[in-house]
Fold this sequence. Notes:
79% of the residues lie in helices and 0% in strands. The chain contains 11 helices and no strands. It starts with 6 loop residues before the first helix and ends with a helix. It is found in: Cell membrane.
Amino acid sequence: MIDPSQPWALVFLLVAGLLAGAVNAVAGGGSLLVFPALLGVGFPPLAANVTNSVAQWPGYAGLVLGARRELPGQGGRIAVTAVAAALGGGVGCTLLLVLPGSVFDAVVPVLVILASLTMAVGPWLKRRIGDPADRGRDRTPALLAAMFLAAVYGGYFGGALGVVLISTLSLFAHDELRRLNALKGVLSLVVATVTVVVFALGAPVDRLAVALLAPTTLVGGYVGALVARRMPETLLRWAVVLLGLAVGVALLFT
C-alpha cells in the first residue's frame, strides 16, 4: 500500500513513528498519531488499523523493559489479567477479521472519537479515582471482566489502548499508580502480541510500513522517556486529543 517511489510518504511515516513513541512515553495515545498518518499516505481504514496495531508491538516491549522494576510482587495479578487480556484481544481481532469491512468503516470514527475523549478525561478520571493504594483489595471479578472488554476494544481497534487499560486498572486494582502503569505495559504487550499473531495469518498488514514504524516508535519512546520531564504533558495530551477528534469527525463524513 506504500509506494516506495514516493520518498515523502516514507519520511512522513518515519516522523509519525518517532512522534508516536514520544507521545506514548509522555502522555499515552501515540497510536492515535500513527493511524491518521497511515490514512494520510493512502491506507484504507481497515489496513491502517491492522498495520498500526502490529507496528506498536516493539514500543510496548520497550515499555515493559523500562518498567520492569515495578512488576515484582504483582505475579498473581499479572497472571490473571494477562489471561483476560489475551482472550479479549483474540476476540477483538477475530471480530475485525470476520465482520464485513463496512462494519469497521462505520464503527471506527466513533472509536477514534471515544478514544480521544478518553484521553481528554484521563487526568480528571485519575483525580476522581484517587490513589488505588488507599483502597482495599483488588475487585478481581470486576477487574477481569473490565480487562476482557478493554482487550476486545484493543484487539478490534487499539487506539489509546494504554489509556483505556490504565483507567480500568485504576478503578479495580489496589496498588500504586506507578506499579499499575507498569502492569498496563505488560497487558498492552499481551494484546499486541495476540494481534501480531492473528493479523499475520490473514489481515492486510503492510510490511514496509511496519518496518518503518516499529523501530521509530521504539526509538521515539526511548527519547520521549528521556525528555518527558521537560515536556508539557497537558499541551501534548490536548494536541493528540484534538487531532483524534478531527480525524474521527473527518471519517464520519468520508
